[in-house]
Amino acid sequence: MSVVHLLHVDDDPDIREIVGIAISSDPMFTIRSCASGEEALAVTAKWSPDLILLDFNMPGMDGPATVTRLRERPQTSGVPVIYITASAEAGQLAQLRFRDVVGVIAKPLDPARLCAHIVAVMCRSHRKLDSDNREKASKAALALSIIESSADGIIVKDLDGTILLWNAAAERLSQFKAPGVIGRNIRSIVPMDQPAREESLFDQVRMGEAVARFETKRCQKDSNITDVSFKASSLHDRAGNVIGGAITVHDLTEQRKIENALSETEQRLALAIQGMSVGVWDWNIRENTLYWSDRFKEMLGLLADFAPSYLEFETRLHPEDRTPTVNMLLDHVNRKSPYDVECRLRHESGDYIWFRSTGQAAWGADGKPIRMVGSVDDITQRKRAEERFRLVVELAPAAMIMINRFGEMVLVNRPTEQLFGYARSDLLGHPIDMLLPQSYRRDHQNHIHRYFASGPSERAMGNGRILAAVRKGGSEFSAEISLTPIDTDDGIMVLAAVVDVTLRKQAEDASRLFQERLEQQVAQRTAQLEAANKDLDDFAYATSHDLKAPLRVIDNASKWLEEDLEPHLTTETRENMHLLRSRVARLERLLDDLLRFSRIGRESGGTEIISGQELIDNVLALLTVPDGFDVKITGFDRIRVSRMPLQQILLNLTGNAIKHHDKSTGQIEVTAEDLGSLQAFAVSDDGCGIAAQYHDRIFKMFQTLKPRDQVEGSGMGLAIVRKYIDQSGGSLSLESSEGAGSCFRFTLPSPSIIQEQSR
Fold first, then answer.
1. Phi first, then psi: what are they for 745, rounded to 5°?
2. Does the domain at residues 400-497 carry the CATH identifier 3.40.710.10?
3. What would the CATH number be for the domain defined by 4-109?
4. What is the distance between the alpha carbons of residues 248 and 669, in angstroms, rounded to a whole number?
5. DSSP class of residue 162?
6. Would you say 393 and 411 are in contact if contact means Cβ atoms under 8 Å apart?
7. Which of 185, 554, 639, 640 is close enough to 612 for a disulfide, judged by CB 3.0 to 4.6 Å?
8. So what's the pLDDT on residue 716?
């Protein structure tokens, strides 16, 4: 079996990996990958792929530039190219298909459908190429047939007067045969009645001017004189340059009635001849002579002076094609059928080349064929591509079914037989409905009718849908269907890829059931957690309230006792009473901090957005800044912030910077910066600093680096700060070393992010 060799060119390594895995999974494909157009040119210098998948947008040499370079090389000039792009809209994709490529595949790619997509693109390309060539060849054959069947002589010459075309009427008028005059100068063939006058008319043609009807006399080969009229017009190339002239010679004695009709068509016929790129043949049926154009000879590896014969044509036909091709030719000249055939002709090298040949005969007044003109086009590449297409479809891992507009299956592959349990002969020609459950069939016929009746942009029947399908024994299974419309000579058809997704659907059903159960469990756990949190809140509040009551009694009793014993108190006893009350105050603060700590992350309430300046003013008003300390504020006047928990965090950090300072004077700096989705803050001081071994310890509950007799506090301030920041989704870090001051940096989500999350 043939292997299809692909070259994939894309600068994105992820796309190269996806395409490589998808293509390599098929044993009938081989793939090589390149990261740039330059690398692709280097690879194809010694190796010619069967198909090129090319990224349209690449740095350096992009897709169109790479295609241009590839077309310049003989080994890659005919290799089909498919663009892969993510930058084009749906309307632009259609325009890209005309840029010397066979199709376009849009990103993102679906690996499971990539092979089928490539097959569909190639199929559309082959059909379009065949249709274009057929139309071109038909027009050329028609033009030549009209020229040769014309009652007027038609002559085409270049600027030097060399004869390029000499039709049958010109032969009758002059009695000079075309093979003897083509390639010779017109002055040596046609005697001129008025040389000076006619030479000036030829000069007009060279200058691009048309020559109106001019009557003169012509001497035939046998010396007879005949009255004729001729008209001439210049022929131009695509750039508008004059490249020759077309002359229509009319026998005034016999053909005057059709003079006007010929003048309207002569220029179009001449231009059609000039623009032909296919091979042309001319069969003079009455004389049984055969003419092949130089292009036709070149296709067969023949020299330009090779003179073919009808027998030569038959002997060059492939033995398998000889009888049907000759029979079709004879049927056409006998007016039984059109002539349009695909056949193989032997090249001079001995190899056979596939040609598509079309032709049109001309009949005389007696109804008998006079001559037949046709064209040939080399379709070897198309035939090879069709064979590759057949192999790709046949060896695709998924079931592939092509249906016509009537819903009948016209192509199936081996996986289709294996999936549905039918032999190929049991499927071809039968309606696709036989593979669907009975309940689907009526609606499915309506879907098919609407699909083929709609425009290309509206066709979306079934793509990606999960449907039920039926095997030969009647068992149903879940199938995913992907449809691709394909333009063929018989009209639009649909290539359907069918994948059995029974196991996947079962897994999805199991996953959905698991998800539902998981959501139920989460809801139950959430309700239990909410109840536990409420119990914790109630306990914390009750505990705080119950513990604070005896503390207030102790505080009040100590004051009363001090008042009653005032005359008898010593300095030591007064200090002890003061120490007692300070311990009570410390315990109350500890209870407040514990209660606040337990509620972080579970407190409800709206988000209040205020200006940064307003918030920092509130913080400074709540702080007691001793004389000798300077608090510098930067950046808060340019941002808006969420009041809580930022206010509490800044109070704790700024208060700590003052409280734990080792001098009576100091500098404290509080900064803010808007980073878009985050806001960054910093509180720094020039105090004693914190040794590196204590950086983790200070954020734990009840941890202080100084005795509480030296610095009052509960030991929970930084623990509360860290929990506020963690719960808000921010980050916290410390930059400090012993004797060098400290800087606490933290981030919080911006107010816009917080508001979005709260919706």
1. -110, 140
2. no
3. 3.40.50.2300
4. 101
5. B
6. yes
7. 639
8. 65
Q: 273 pLDDT exceeds 50?
A: no
Q: What is the 3-state secondary structure (H, E, C) of 599-610?
A: HCCCCCCCCCEE
DSSP code per residue over 445-495: HHHHHHHHHS-GGG--TTTTEEEEEE-TTS-EEEEEEEEEEEEETTEEEEE
Under DSSP, is residue 44 helix (H, G, I), strand (E, B) or coil?
Answer: coil
pLDDT (average), residues 700-722: 57
For the entire predicted model, the pTM comes to: 0.34
The superfamily (CATH) of domain 123-149+278-397 is: PAS domain (3.30.450.20)
Q: Containing H/E element for 29?
A: strand 29-34
Which of the pair, 268 or 18, is modelled with greater confidence? Answer: 18
Host H or E run for residue 517: helix 502-564
Q: Name which of 309, 304, 359 is nearest 148 in CA terms.
A: 359
Out of 326-335, 466-475, 649-658, 702-711, the most confident range is 326-335
Integer Cα distance of 134 and 140 in angstroms: 10
Over its C-alpha atoms, the chain yields an Rg (Å, rounded) of 47
- The helix (H) or strand (E) run that includes residue 197 is helix 195-206
pLDDT for the residue 90: 47
Rounded CA gap, 612 and 610, in Å?
6
List % helix, strand, coil for the chain (3-state, nearest 5): 45, 25, 30
Which residues make Cβ contacts (< 8 Å) with residue 634, sequence separation at least 6? 669, 670, 671, 672
> Residue 637 is which amino acid?
D
The CATH code for residues 152-254 is 3.30.450.20
What region does 571 belong to: left with phi over 0, alpha with psi -120 to 50, or beta? alpha
Residue-wise pLDDT tens digits, 102-139: 778 888 877 777 777 777 766 666 566 566 657 766 77
Structural fold of domain 609-758: Heat Shock Protein 90 (3.30.565)
Torsion, Cα 381 382 388 391, to 10 degrees, reads -140
Interatomic CA distance for residues 590 and 752, integer angstroms: 35
Round to whole Å and give the CA distance between 577 and 592.
Answer: 23
pLDDT, position 547: 59
Nearest to 144 by CA among 37, 313, 275: 275
Residue with tokens 């349009």: 340
Answer whether 305's CB lies under 8 Å from 292's CB.
no
* Pairwise CA distance, residues 693 & 181, whole Å: 108
The per-residue pLDDT for range 277-310, each reduced to its tens digit, is 688 888 988 888 888 888 899 899 999 889 888 8
Return d(Cα 756, Cα 759) in angstroms, integer: 6
- 477 strand-pairing partners: 469
Both tokens of 97, joined, read: 């298909």
